[in-house]
Amino acid sequence: MKYILLMSGTQAGVDTYRSWPQKDIQAHFAFLARLNKELQESGEFVATQPLDLPAQARIVRAGKDGAPITDGVFPEAKEFLLGYWIVDVESPQRAYEIAARLSAGPGPGGITLSMPIEVRQMMSNHTEEVL
Amino acid sequence: MPGSTDAAFEHLLRELAPQVLGAVIRRFRDFAAAEDAVQEALLAAALQWPAEGVPGNPRAWLIQVAGRRMTDAIRADLARRRRETAVATELEYLTPAAEIDTGAEQDDTLILLFMCCHPALTPPSAIALTLRAVGGLTTAEIASAFLVPEATMAQRISRAKQSIKSSGVPFRLPTDAERAQRLRAVLHVLYLIFNEGYVASAGEQAQRLDLSREAIRLTRALRDLLPDDGEVAGLLSLMLLTDARRLARTGPDEELIPLTRQDRTKWDQAEIAEGVALITATLSKGSVGAYQLQAAIAAVHDEAPQAEDTDWPQILVLYGLLKRMSDNPMVALNHAVAAAMVHGPSAGLNLLKALDQDGRLAGHHRLDAVRAHLLEMAGQPEAAIVHYRLAAARTSSLPERNYLLTQAARLSD
């Protein structure tokens, strides 16, 4: 079963992260690279994708003529999707374990960030006979 | 036509794959490395044969190329170890590939199936390994069938081979004592492969390897090897009789169409005829198993020209037998449906009470879906809507969710 693990944060959070000391930033990047490698080796990795930072984010709606109406810049405290991981695992518990690993990424001074990770099962196109 | 030539090459290569692998394992006694070497030989053949023509003895050609790859790999390994430990090593290990025993190919395919479906492996590992080592599929093809990257599938296959190596399964047929249980594991893996092929999206079906067809091909091969086994025949018949309904199962917008409302002119009559003949011949031999009973039920459905003609009393009897044979709550659920069709919805709903108490299906969408269906039959649309929506919230299948929400909406209108 496939799960998507969604990592969110705020513009303010991203700004803080940009001012981390070099060794802490490097430790964080190394942690992510290691985790991705582990998921590849366990045969559970499907995809990961970091997103552009929230400063560039826009909300788009269709106007009456169908043309895009864009909205942005957003308050610093607004939550944004920062990136996602897709994993193919044996059980929901395993997806939660991986999410907890992601959440435990090191922050400044090596202290665990405990970022909230939203875990959602992905719908499949697989079916069985229906009544 | 180049397309059909390619298909013919592919067919030949995939038929030969397990035979070649068996021969190479017999010679080199290393399943994991032999499996890699045979994959390389198959790829080499796929590149060379279309241009240069199929060699006179394609099987011997593949064995020789794979044997050469094995020898190269062993040589490289020895060189590496020599660099590391500076000790001379046993060069007699490098026997020319021509000495590979080319007999016993039938048994080899069977042994490989038993190995790849070994109970030590998790079902996803067994499925991947069976498709590659017995089915002769490439890692890329298997990866695309399961919608994961090729590197991820390669890891799964390599880990599966590692598990086989560490569990020390010998390359021979299981002993008589363990044979029945090991054959059950093989049939279960083939059944899972067949079910994996059940995707509702036509777009997805066009892009993905057809796992249902592949499962049928492998089960046919198994039946050729074990023609007297009733459960092997039963599984093949079940697959044919289920696959026969494939085109009728989805509508133009990829929506699911239930069995009772399918356009039965779209059912594949050739597959039905083959499946019915097979299960009829098998049942007459006695010693009935679970796959045979499921095939018999599928046959009753497939033989009804219209849904109203379905012989539900017969299906109810068959589910009763199946229920006595296996402690599977899904069987009990289908039994309840058949009871409702014969004795009315309240009989079915009564049987669901036992399933509620049993608890194993608690929170399972299918229990809610069946309850909704029976409540609708019983003339309780409000309660049916509640359970259709509950089922929709609990399924992880998108086509099923859409179907269940549509049922709830139909009753609400």
Write the SSE topology:
The complex is a heterodimer of chains A (131) and B (413).
Chain A: E1 2-10, H1 11-18, H2 22-41, E2 45-50, E3 59-62, E4 68-71, E5 79-88, H3 92-103, E6 117-121
Antiparallel strand pairs in A: 1-5, 1-6, 2-5, 3-4
Chain B: H1 2-28, H2 31-52, H3 58-85, H4 105-116, H5 123-134, H6 139-145, H7 150-167, H8 176-196, H9 202-207, H10 211-225, H11 230-243, H12 269-283, H13 290-303, H14 312-325, H15 329-343, H16 345-358, H17 365-377, H18 381-394, H19 398-412
Helix pairs in contact in B: 1-2, 1-3, 1-4, 2-3, 4-5, 5-7, 5-8, 6-7, 8-10, 10-11, 11-12, 11-13, 12-13, 13-14, 14-15, 15-16, 16-17, 17-18, 18-19
Describe this structure in words.
The complex is a heterodimer of chains A (131) and B (413). Chain A is of the alpha+beta class and 131 residues long. In chain A, 31% of the residues lie in helices and 29% in strands. A four-stranded antiparallel sheet of chain A has the order 2-5-1-6. Chain A starts with a strand and ends in a 10-residue tail after the last strand. The model of chain A has no long low-confidence stretch (mean pLDDT 91). Chain B is an all-alpha fold. Chain B is 72% helix and 0% strand. Chain B has 19 helices and no strands. The A-B interface holds A 1-2, 40-47, 88, 90, 121-131 and B 122, 124, 146-149, 151-153, 155-156, 159, 195-196, 198-201, 204, 242, 249, 256, 258-260, 337, 366, 369-370, 373, 396-401, 403.
